[in-house]
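Progress against Task 2.4 (sequence-to-structure conversion) is shown through the following example record, which the project officer requested during the mid-term review.
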Amino acid sequence: MTTWITICETCKREGWEAGAPTDGARLAGLIEALDPGPLKLRRHSCLMGCTHGCNVTVQAAGKLCYTIGRFEPTQEAAEAIRDWALLHAASETGQVPYRQWPEAIKGHFVTRHPPLPGPGAE
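Structure tokens generated for the chain above:
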């Protein structure tokens, strides 16, 4: 089962200068430059969490899915996002014990979504 990191490439933090790359695009570039291991990465235009930018989702079928945000587009943030997503990928349920979280990810969780019901649940 593949774990996806989806990065909002249109996120703009306060103070963003028109014409400059968006903060989301900068964060996406930093994450994309890292070794993703088994993770898959994609950019998306607007995750509709503008008050929490920069926003990222970590998702996998059959697992808890998360939206994390309020990141600066920094190397430290990119590494923490990737490292936490690797822990999510290794977890059977998508839940990662707090004691394992990278320090730079703490305080950045916005939402958690339960997995969608499987076939025949309707």
